[in-house]
Amino acid sequence: MRATQFGARCQAGVCSLLVLSLGGITAPPASAQLPGAPVLQNAWATPGVVAAINFGSGSDGEVYALAGSWAPTSGRFQLSGGAGSRRFSGVGSRSVFGLRLAVPFGGGAASNFGFAAFVGGGGGAGGKSNAADSLASTSQLPVGAAIGWRRALGASHGLSLYASPSYVFFTGGSKAGGLVRTSVAADLGITASLGLTAGIEFGQTRVRSVGGPSGTLFGVGIAYALGRR
User: What pTM did the predictor assign?
Assistant: First the structure.
């Protein structure tokens, strides 16, 4: 199997895209770390620019965001960023933003298995512990690894499954601390440029008043790789 460049993935904490091309398989990542959205990180980088629309949901509310990623032709690393709105149940909506750097290692351009390391950061308004409190600023810094598997589906489609465990440091309210969280997700290549991602994040939790997830987070996204593929 000859190595080809085929894959793209993006997530505002949520989204990614897998694209396949004739003759080979390679995959992709691009991610942004948004509070309230799951940390979905694939094991490959997609050269070029990818844009995405993302949605995340959990017990505390929902996140709607736009995201983008860029990686050099070599695919040695990928930078992602995103911004959007987070709606808190019973509180209202506030702005959130995120950035992430992912570095693939191991595997190879034609390998079905891949690995990557990543670090991110994001912030925005947090929750409140009672009616007298104001919305506190909250931020999160995930550091983790990703392992992924991919398979071509015909000449121009593909599927990738991956897991991304991480340690996430949170600040918010009057308390800072870290949690161990894990995400599992799937990327589906719909066309050579368009892809769909869905995934969940689960693990340790924090109470809403000090920021951080209080349960399982769900995310979906659709991404488009710019330029000819």
Answer: 0.81
